[in-house]
Design a protein that fits this description.
The chain has 891 residues and is mainly beta. Helix content is 6%, strand content 34%.
Length: 891
């Protein structure tokens, strides 16, 4: 009868969802056991007048209040319909296969925390035991399962984690921390990695403690940095793993990876404070996580997990599924598998994640990840075009991960921006630190429901995201690669564009503020984003391969894409890491990309449009014998969007080369589309703080991709691979532009772009044939030839240019130029123009104030004149035409 009733309740959950809301059961915590509670050890407590023996299946009836005053023999199972509370006058252990809670399990209360040791151990002697009604698609044993019940666990530990007060050198047997209050000898701590390698996290036992100085049980294998360096706080975190209340699986889970789990269903309540969860989570089993709120809805109000430690988990850390208004605060996690802090379907909102620390997050229990990311070719096994389809299929297969995205694991998996994240740390994920992967609508259990239809995560403004830290990951902060209905994702695609009314795509876009973030020692990027009107204020990025990159979301339809303001980028700090490879040892510090040790580190990558850098300082970006470097550059080596109107102003450079355009090198490439846009890169220096020349443009000038806009009036900076030019710099196109709506054409084209580890699927019948190469175009000015790649280039107003090509027809258009700006083109071998005003002499053409042409004896001359100021940011071949003026000439 019990099994049937549990299953019935589980079947009711989708019915509540179908009504467009949650069924909420409210309840009050009890401050102490009832006065009439009976002792477990008293035979009179039990209906059969016998104290439960080994392997017993015990039921505490609805009207029973029982105090566990002894450590009973190992049980088969325990059902709590009434109340079971642990006595607080001795250390106690409860060992059982499972616990089903309809009533209340209490070990301490918020008003009176438990002070002795209390351990619950979940065994797995009876395999595949299933009680039904707990969600998921497989067995539900080895767990604490709440069906409308209450879990009240309150231990004594409040000081979950601190930071090093000074650097702990390799070989040290003691460390000094900022705050060791209430920590004791015999307790277990973990030091986070402060280098690029997340596996440099180290677990130690405290052998002695005096004030804030901790003596360890054995030497440290690695240096752990403990300073604020160049105004960036890189002091390593130290987490406390021991608690006086412990939930754990028995030791056999270390081989089976089938740990314990705690799961609260609809109407249940969990109040968890100061608890240790060890060997929890059931690897490759849905819904079997260390602690899991499952479709509790708004009933999550007032519930929490805080001051707790989750370590050696085989399947996630804290899972919030279809539950709102929880408080997740001051917890430590270490050595866990799969996304750690996990917002499951995208319907979750109003939850607060505050001051949590996640250390060493892995894709798998033992083997390496097979990630889908933008790694440089030189370090990416999936970058070979012949291997891409196979690699992506393996990465996304889900055969050895719970979700395909777990192969690109993250410490914080965020599927809805309407949740609060403050002062959290991602310290050593194999892949991402924080990852916004936003579905169009909530999916999973919510797919097709009214809740799902009314919720738009990609258009929802961020509730609050500030003070968070990401270090020792591959990518620190990832605001891109949104998940789709099949639980897979691409490296390009739909983005986050917050709207005043998320239900109305055409309502006003609103800013999203990401404040006071810190990203350091990330092997790839400190920040990667995609979307519109993202403001990064007081960002501090240091010791990363790349500090910041952001990609467009609406292709110029919004005021700006990203703004980095009042921020700091540091190329290399005093944190030298732990050199391992010969190159690192020779260099004297660890390197972000060991397989390509000469990778050119840089602070800020411009990418497509529109990105602004304001009042930001760059420190320690100088070339040396190991590698090149520079503060500002463009995405290496992008073939996507490009504009002349990505800007910088009020910048400051300290021991930093302001700009560096590395020469194209396939090892550094993560875009793999020929670098066609990178070859025409430009940066607009509004106030001269970068170049010394106000209202100037920095153009690529590397001897191979020099711009026709560059001449002897420009300043040449050989170490930058750039020129600095005054004047009105815009863009020229030599192809027919595609008209169409911004959100449609641009997005569709960009979506199918092939990137390093995420190729487009092969077409039926074999790979697609490469397009025939276009007849080349060469531009000539002042006696110098300039080659054109992908029919585009930068161009300067007031110049005359010869166009040399064997094409039968050439379309020429200008964008991103001021009203009345003009450019004259000579096209030898052409006979006519299809538009514009015909002039009767070259002099008349040069004096013309509108787009015109002149037919000479052996050439057509055209003058393109800008009739009106640009209406928005210019588009490239992936976006709709915003051409200001154009003309087509034919032979």
């Amino acid at each position: 009868m019990q099994k049937r009733s549990l299953l019935l309740l589980s079947l009711l959950v989708p019915a509540f969802l179908g009504l467009g809301g949650y069924a909420v059961v409210q309840g009050q915590q009890k401050s102490s056991p009832a006065a009439g509670a009976k002792r477990w050890s008293d035979a009179a407590t039990w209906p059969d007048k016998k104290v439960p023996a080994k392997d017993a299946v015990v039921t505490i009836d609805r009207d029973m209040d029982v105090i566990l005053d002894v450590s009973p023999p190992e049980l088969h199972g325990l059902t709590i319909n009434g109340t079971l509370s642990f006595a607080d006058n001795k250390d106690l252990e409860l060992t059982t296969e499972w616990i089903m809670v309809h009533g209340e399990l209490e070990i301490g209360t918020e008003a009176k925390p438990h002070t002795h040791q209390a351990t619950i151990t979940l065994t797995d002697n009876v395999k595949d035991e299933d009680f039904g009604g707990m969600g998921g698609n497989d067995r539900s044993d080895r767990g604490i399962m709440l069906m409308g019940g209450t879990l009240n666990l309150h231990g004594t530990e409040k000081n979950s984690w601190t930071k090093l007060a000074k650097t702990a050198e390799a070989g040290s047997t003691s460390i000094e921390v900022l705050n060791a209050a209430d920590w004791r000898a015999g307790e277990e701590i973990v030091l986070a990695s402060t280098d690029f390698d997340p596996r440099q996290a180290e677990r130690r036992t405290i052998s002695a403690i005096r004030g804030n100085t901790i003596t360890l049980d054995k030497k440290l294998d690695y240096m752990h940095f403990g300073k604020i360096t160049f105004d960036v706080d890189e002091r390593g975190e130290v987490g406390m793993l021991t608690r006086n209340i412990k939930l754990q699986a028995s030791a056999d889970a270390e081989q089976s990876f089938f740990g314990g789990h705690v799961m609260a269903m609809l109407g249940s309540k969990m109040y968890v404070d100061g608890v240790e969860l060890n060997r929890m989570g059931q690897n490759m089993h849905l819904a079997r996580y260390p602690i899991h709120w499952h479709l509790v809805g708004d009933g999550g109000q007032g519930q929490y997990i805080r001051n707790s430690a989750i370590h050696d988990s085989y399947n996630r850390c804290v899972t919030v599924h279809g539950t709102n208004f929880l408080h997740v605060e001051n917890n430590v996690t270490y050595n866990t598998v799969g996304h750690c802090f996990f917002l499951e379907d995208g319907a979750e909102h109003g939850n607060q994640f505050v001051h949590n620390l996640a250390i060493q997050i892995k894709c798998h229990t033992s083997k390496a990840c097979a990630p889908t990311n933008l790694a440089a070719n030189g370090e990416n096994m999936g970058s070979n075009p012949l291997n891409r389809a196979t690699y992506r299929a393996a990465s996304m297969s889900g055969k050895d991960t719970l979700l395909p995205s777990d192969n690109t694991v993250t410490a914080y998996w965020i599927t809805n921006p309407d949740n609060v994240f403050i002062d959290n740390v991602a310290a050593g994920s194999d892949e991402n630190g924080f990852w916004w992967s936003l579905p169009e609508h909530p999916q999973g259990k919510f797919e097709g429901t009214e809740i799902s239809k009314a919720t738009w995560p990609r258009r929802t403004r961020m509730a609050e995201f500030r003070g968070n830290v990401a270090h020792s990951n591959f990518d620190g902060f990832m605001l891109d690669r949104n998940i789709n209905r099949e639980n897979v994702f691409g490296l390009a695609g739909p983005s986050h564009i917050a709207k005043e009314n998320p239900a109305d795509e055409n309502s006003k876009s609103v800013e999203s503020l990401l404040a006071d973030l810190t990203a350091y020692k990330n092997r790839n990027g400190g920040v990667w984003g995609r979307g519109e009107m993202h403001v990064f204020r007081n960002l501090k990025a240091a010791d990363n391969a790349i500090g910041f990159t952001n990609s467009v979301g609406s292709f110029g339809a919004d005021t700006f894409t990203s703004l980095v303001v009042d921020s700091l980028f540091v190329g290399e700090t005093d944190n030298i890491g732990n050199p391992v490879t010969p190159e690192e040892k020779a260099y004297g510090r660890s390197l972000p990309k060991r397989l390509i040790p000469d990778y050119p580190i840089h602070a800020y990558e411009y990418y497509d449009y529109r990105h602004d850098v304001v009042n930001t300082t760059f420190v320690n970006f100088q070339d040396n014998k190991q590698r090149g470097s520079g503060a500002l550059t463009w995405l290496l080596f992008t073939g996507a969007g490009v504009t002349t109107e990505n800007t910088v102003k009020s910048a400051k450079y300290i021991n930093a080369k302001p700009v560096y355009f590395p020469k194209i090198d396939s090892r550094f490439d993560s875009d793999n589309r020929s670098g066609s846009a990178y070859r025409t890169a430009a940066i607009h220096d509004l106030d001269g703080s970068t170049t010394g020349i106000p209202d100037s443009y920095v153009l690529i000038h590397d001897g191979e991709n020099d711009s026709v806009a560059t001449d002897d009036t420009c300043e040449i900076h050989p170490t930058w691979n750039a020129s600095v030019c005054k004047g009105d710099i815009g863009r020229i196109q030599f192809s027919i532009r595609r008209p169409g709506p911004t959100s449609g054409v641009g997005l569709a084209l960009k979506d199918v772009a092939v990137r390093s580890a995420a190729p487009a699927p092969a077409r039926a019948g074999g790979p697609a044939r490469a397009a025939a190469p276009e007849i080349p175009i060469t531009l000539s000015r002042n006696g110098k030839d300039f080659k054109i790649t992908a029919n585009q280039s930068t161009v300067r107003a007031g110049t005359e240019i010869r166009v040399k090509t064997e094409r039968p027809e050439v379309a020429i258009s200008l964008t991103e130029m001021a009203k009345d700006s003009w450019v004259v083109f000579e096209l030898p071998g052409f006979a006519n123009a299809t538009s514009g005003k015909q002039q009767d002499s070259i002099d008349a053409l040069r004096k013309a104030t509108e787009t015109s042409y002149f037919k000479g004896p052996d050439a057509v001359w055209v003058k393109l004149v800008i009739p009106a100021a640009p209406k928005g940011i210019g588009m490239d071949q992936f976006g709709p035409s915003v051409t200001q003026t154009s003309i087509t000439v034919r032979r």
